[in-house]
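Colleagues,

For the teaching module next term, I've prepared a clean inverse folding example: a structure given as tokens, and then the sequence designed for it. I'd like students to try predicting residues themselves before seeing the answer, so please don't circulate the second half yet.
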């Protein structure tokens, strides 16, 4: 967005993705208590607003009203305060209950469109957004949304310590925000510290959600209350069994949602989740990293093609190998570049079963995918890269090789990739002892930098380069576990963050990629490729790389 613009656009109804139908999903087998820990009780309520007019070009078939869409998830959600959420289960459930000022377009995920706001105006200096709101939006408890709710929520996300809150994701997403000010009865002015290229996309994520001030001030948080403005409201939560949402009949966007509700079954075991989908007990698998495996996807395509479909979609999850640059010999960029060069990305993808090679940024940012495969370290065959890697090893004084340790989380996917990394390192004489630890321990070792190398998968929330750069590569970044610090990189990070012109920003990102190739603080092995299964009676579902488009089900409907 450049200059002065006012957006009062409408969202188009999802295009229909698949045809056909399947039997209604029975729900008896999954309606039995499991072993999940008890969750605090939630307060049910009544609901609020969103998208307008269906596009006449979207489909010749009119969406059908009614039905409960059923899905699986791998664990209970332990509270209902979406501003304090960080687990994927929150996005699967609470993004349908709560809303933000803006959202990602449900079809074109690079576009940002209104949600609670009707539109916004950007000042000529690119620092002040004036958001205008409808006056008929209601909370699920029947109270009207006010500008105080907007201001209070934004400030609570921005200053969690001051509000005695926790904002594990949101605080970083609004880091560019300076102040939020109420302007009249229907507008809020948000001023940023500098013209921010990523601010709108950051607040379009579900983590920057608006919550009711009257409950927050009375109870301190929303951990026990699910009172939002979204198209669905909490109906029932049964720990270890399911979470059920009901249609908000008072929703401000007339005509949606189409479904009568959503039901999420808690199924901890992956094989059992797949069985529930395969046998028609649920309409959809988990969406995202814990959806279908490569093997399961092939089973669906082979045995269920007449009644189910597999959506294969890009993710914001990268598999990596990174270095402790505060510990010798990994403070030497030549050794890190050698590892980057020797790694056979295609072989790693084959072991995983699915994935894409890619640059340091989530597509469509950074070097285009068709060009990445031509770069050193990514290209095939590997002979030239291995030879150059051995030369760098010799220049660094390790022609005969070296011993080191390689940390990995004790989970199936990360253990598998850790074993791949160990084999790849051996090609240039690096003897890496694979050390497997549990999640809590690996987090602690990351913070203490108690490792030599680690193999791990990281997931971004927004997909914007700002998140990648400030999180993993900036000096002091929250996930810069290797202690990488480079003045030139830091300056370029600051510069691209303040560059609103897309082409100019891309040029700066190209400089960052060049510098990154020279210093190799983190080796991007590949980007995961998500596989989501759905019975063909599910219409209007459009997966995207992150949880924010596909976590919302206001446009989804069932043929029967």
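(Answer key — instructors only)
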């Amino acid at each position: 967005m450049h200059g002065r613009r006012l957006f009062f656009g409408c969202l188009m109804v999802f295009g229909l993705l698949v045809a056909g139908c399947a039997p209604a999903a029975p729900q008896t087998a999954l309606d039995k208590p499991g072993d999940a820990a008890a969750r605090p009780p939630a307060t049910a309520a009544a609901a609020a607003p969103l998208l307008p007019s269906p596009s006449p070009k979207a489909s010749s078939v009119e969406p059908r009203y009614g039905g409960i869409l059923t899905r699986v998830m791998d664990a209970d959600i332990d509270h209902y305060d979406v501003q304090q959420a960080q687990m994927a289960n929150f996005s699967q459930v609470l993004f349908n209950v709560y809303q933000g000022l803006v959202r990602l377009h449900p079809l074109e995920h690079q576009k940002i469109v209104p949600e609670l706001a009707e539109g916004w105006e950007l000042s000529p200096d690119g620092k002040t957004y004036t958001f205008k709101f409808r006056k008929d939006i209601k909370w699920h408890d029947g109270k009207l949304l006010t500008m105080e709710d907007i201001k209070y929520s934004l400030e609570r996300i921005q200053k969690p310590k001051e509000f005695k809150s926790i904002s594990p994701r949101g605080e970083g997403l609004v880091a560019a925000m300076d102040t939020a000010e109420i302007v009249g009865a229907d507008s809020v002015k948000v001023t940023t510290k500098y013209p921010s290229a990523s601010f709108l996309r950051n607040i379009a994520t579900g983590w920057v959600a608006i919550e009711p001030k009257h409950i927050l001030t009375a109870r301190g948080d929303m951990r026990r209350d699910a009172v939002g403005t979204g198209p669905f409201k909490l109906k029932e939560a049964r720990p270890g069994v399911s979470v059920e949402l009901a249609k908000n009949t008072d929703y401000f966007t007339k005509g949606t949602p189409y479904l009568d509700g959503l039901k999420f079954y808690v199924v901890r075991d992956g094989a059992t989740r797949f069985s529930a989908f395969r046998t028609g007990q649920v309409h959809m698998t988990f969406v995202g990293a814990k959806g279908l495996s490569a093997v399961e996807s092939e089973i669906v395509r082979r045995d269920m093609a007449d009644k189910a479909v597999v959506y294969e979609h890009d993710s914001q999850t990268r598999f990596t190998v990174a270095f402790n640059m505060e510990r010798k010999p990994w403070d030497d960029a030549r050794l890190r570049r050698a590892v980057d060069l020797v790694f056979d990305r295609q072989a790693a993808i084959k072991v995983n079963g699915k994935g894409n090679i890619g640059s340091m940024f989530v597509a469509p940012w950074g070097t285009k995918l068709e060009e990445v495969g031509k770069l050193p370290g990514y290209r095939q065959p590997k002979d030239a890269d291995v030879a150059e890697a051995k030369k760098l090893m010799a220049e660094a004084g390790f022609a005969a090789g070296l011993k080191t340790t390689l940390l990995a989380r004790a989970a199936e996917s990360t253990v598998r990739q850790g074993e791949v990394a160990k084999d790849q390192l051996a090609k240039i004489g690096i003897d890496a002892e694979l050390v497997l630890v549990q999640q809590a321990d690996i987090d602690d070792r990351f913070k203490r930098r108690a490792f030599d190398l680690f193999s791990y998968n990281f997931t971004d929330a927004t997909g914007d380069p700002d998140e990648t750069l400030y999180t993993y590569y900036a000096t002091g970044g929250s996930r810069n576990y290797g202690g990488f610090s480079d003045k030139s990189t830091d300056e370029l990070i600051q510069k691209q963050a303040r560059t609103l012109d897309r082409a100019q920003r891309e040029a700066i990102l190209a400089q960052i990629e060049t510098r990154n190739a020279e210093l190799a603080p983190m080796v991007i092995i590949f980007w995961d490729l998500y596989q989501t299964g759905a019975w063909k009676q599910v219409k209007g579902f459009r997966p995207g790389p992150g949880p924010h488009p596909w976590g919302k089900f206001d446009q989804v409907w069932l043929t029967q």
